[in-house]
Amino acid sequence: MSQKETEEYLYVDQIVKLPFTESAGLYISRFLTKIRDEGKIVANKCPKCNRIIVPPRIVCSYCKVKIEDKPENWVELSDKGTVTDTMTIEDREIDAVTGEMVGAPNPNLFIRLDGGDEWTIIGHISEEMDASKVPPGTRVQAVWKPREERLGKVSDIKYFKVIQE
Ligand SMILES: [Zn+2]
Asked: How high is the pLDDT of residue 96?
């Protein structure tokens, strides 16, 4: 038996960081710019099926019609809405470098924003850590970061808080 036949090869895991950016496109750029600059959430409306779509899309995913960039096809939504469902992720991501859990355990809310329709649902985290305190039907409102801290991301909304109306 030669040395080569008994030689063991080991593997070394490498963490490769490949940062890159790509254009968000006209519609998502407008959506994110409105969030950053005005603290507003915009959607667009399909001219065929009349669904209000958030985040806005250039093509309606239901009926495959192009949604033209016309003022009448844009809709401003409220930052208030109604919880339709909740999801709490128990098994959270572990940072491979630090070994610590990533993110907070806040329940994720699915929220139908006022000014939209039954399909106008966004997902975001809840201020409330206990999902049983934000059941479907709960009224919530976005809590925004101050303007100078906003980056044009959905995380410019810190979380949604329960409101009494
Ligand atoms: Zn449509």
From this structure: 80
